[in-house]
């Protein structure tokens, strides 16, 4: 049975496309902002596919701009992905909490008797492209105050560098850092697979 669905929309572009099972459709709406950004919303119109599929969204970069992409994935795939994403975020929270208890005080003490540039040099890891640039470090330090910003830099992405700088031999924490990195890789692999296998 084909059900005609009329969709009330304020979108700039509306596109009706075939659904995964092939017997119905989904609707893609797009709103374009004045500054060239855009926002999309996908709505499944096919009742069969609505039961079986849900939206997987992901951020990606194209030519210096950030976008959000969409795919239809099965509800089972979505559950597995959500569970892994939650595991990653719980592992990161736990790692940060434990690291704070053990080493934050020593980290903050580095703030004393050091210039902004010296602190940045401690934090900067030339091998790591994600390491903050000097100008970014200065900008945040100006906005938050140096001490507060230094406290913010005590973060999960900086953890290897932090342990390195502090020279602490904390095998347990180093293990947790490695385990988290592994989980993050698993999540990235799963997300790349969903982007490829997901329906659009
Ligand atoms: Zn369908």
Structure description:
- With 200 residues, this protein is α+β, with helices and mostly antiparallel strands.
- Helix content is 51%, strand content 20%.
- It contains 7 helices and 5 strands; from the N terminus they run E-E-E-H-E-E-H-H-H-H-H-H.
- Strands 1-2-3 form a 3-stranded antiparallel beta sheet. A two-stranded antiparallel ribbon has the order 4-5.
- Helix 4 crosses helix 5.
- The two termini are 23 Å apart.
- The site of zinc ion (ZN) has 8 residues, from helix 1.
- Zinc ion binds next to helix 1.
Low-confidence stretches: none
Shape: elongated
Largest sheet: 3 strands, antiparallel
Mean pLDDT: 91
In total, the number of strands is 5
Question: Reading side by side through the largest sheet, how are the strands ordered?
Answer: 1-2-3
Intertermini distance = 23 Å
Classify the beta-strand content into a percent band: 15-25%
- List the helices and strands in order: EEEHEEHHHHHH
Discrete helix count: 7
State the helical fraction: 40-55%
Main structural class: alpha+beta
Bound molecules: zinc ion
Please compute the radius of gyration using only Cα atoms: 23 Å
């Amino acid at each position: 049975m084909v059900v005609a669905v009329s969709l009330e929309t304020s979108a700039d572009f509306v596109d009706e496309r075939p659904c995964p099972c092939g017997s119905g459709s989904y609707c893609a709406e797009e709103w374009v902002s004045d500054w060239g950004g855009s926002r999309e919303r996908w709505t499944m119109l096919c009742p069969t596919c609505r039961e079986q599929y849900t939206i997987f969204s992901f951020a990606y970069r194209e030519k210096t701009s950030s976008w959000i992409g969409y795919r239809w994935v099965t509800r089972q795939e979505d559950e597995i992905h959500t569970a892994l994403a939650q595991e990653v975020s719980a592992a990161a929270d736990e790692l940060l909490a434990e690291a704070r208890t053990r080493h934050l005080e020593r980290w903050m003490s580095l703030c004393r008797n050091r210039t902004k540039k010296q602190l940045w040099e401690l934090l900067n890891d030339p091998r790591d492209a994600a390491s903050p640039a000097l100008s970014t470090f200065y900008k945040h330090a100006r906005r938050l105050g140096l001490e507060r910003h230094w406290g913010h830099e005590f973060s999960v992405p900086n953890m290897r560098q932090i342990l390195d700088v502090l020279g602490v031999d904390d095998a347990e924490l180093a293990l947790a850092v490695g385990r988290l990195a592994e989980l993050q890789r698993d999540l990235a692999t799963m997300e790349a697979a969903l982007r490829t296998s997901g329906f659009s």
